[in-house]
Amino acid sequence: MEEKTVMDALVQMKRTGNLLNELWDLTRQLGESIDRNDQVSTQMLIAMREEPLGKLQDADQALRDQLELLPDHEAAAALAAMLNGGPPADPAQRPQVMLCEQVGSNNRRLKQIVELDRMLNRRLAREDSAYR
Description:
Blueprint: H1 3-35, H2 39-48, H3 50-69, H4 73-83, H5 94-125
Helix pairs in contact: 1-2, 1-3, 1-5
């Protein structure tokens, strides 16, 4: 697999990581506004979360497009495996290791966001929660 291919994916995953950190911060602030019973801030923060969510979808689509455009099916499969949390295809290649580390970091942050979001959604929506 070409190093450029891995570096392009790494750039998108770093962008994703930054967006996840932004989303984490907004979600944390949302929890604080709910604790204060500040409905204006709550509504504002819910709306503010839409921007990083949209950008996350764009980054995900860019990665999907990159995979589809790879002419080498084996390289595409190896990259897809790494993007899905698998180990580096070639552990001697530092960019592949960095990509896998970033994917792991992003997955951990995403789990934190989902758990906090689940808790906040249940507090706000009670029996109408999106999480069952």
